[in-house]
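Practice problem. Given the sequence and the SMILES for zinc ion, write out the predicted structure.
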Amino acid sequence: MFEIIDLKAILIVFMIFVPLEHLVPLHEGRRYLRRAFVTDLLHLLVTGLLFKIGFLIFVGACMMAIDSAVPSIIGETVRAQPIWLQTIEVIVISDVGFYVAHRTLHSVPFLWRFHAIHHSIEELDALAAHRVHPLDQLFVKATSLLPIYALGFSVWPIIIAGLIYQWQALLIHSNIRIGFGPFKWVVASPLFHHWHHANEPAAIDKNFAGQLSIIDAIFGTMYMPEAMPTKYGTDEPVPDAYFRQLAYPFTRPKRPPIASDLQMAELNHDQSN
Ligand SMILES: [Zn+2]
Ligand SMILES: [Zn+2]
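Answer key:
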């Protein structure tokens, strides 16, 4: 789990998703070595490792607290269910947790500074899916997985749901033209998540779910026109360089002066003369 180089993640992106993105592209004419390619590659290699270290320390401590607080009868009852039912429950419960954490990242200004790194992607593809600040990942994974651990699900449903999540996370960011038909109203698709990344007023703060788009339909936050968005990214001034992105949430950039600032400066100047 804690390998320095995540060879599996590299192989999945470059041996499976990159060829598909060129064979059946959603947006035509993308260059292979696009802008921010190196930044996203470093997110795949380094951020993944930072996240795993943080996960081991923080989530490990939370798990120990849960072990002593939750009665064992809950886990015994949950594990008595069939594996297929537990798998569905793990997907639903963890994605409700994902939805809550993701929506919180968008609505709390300090947390948005971490999540803005992910929304700075202007060319969506499977490699760009890895551009997530490690503390953003830690917050979302802890919120979505700790309830699963507390309820005491069996290991196999967690492994199966985890594998489905990993592939779906890459697919919904990818530049692959694939339609989900009527299932798009229930399951998160590239169309659904590409609209989450669209830099268009109607799409802001929409489509928060990671796996089940129906959660957004239930909470009234779904936005999914038939056409794909054309403009991605955020107006937040996120830097391009990898290490500056890691530091960005802690280094509040000066905003450009606005009209009221200039009027106040003039007033102070007049009073001092
Ligand atoms: Zn978001
Ligand atoms: Zn995304």
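Check your answer against the key. The two ends are 67 Å apart (CA to CA).
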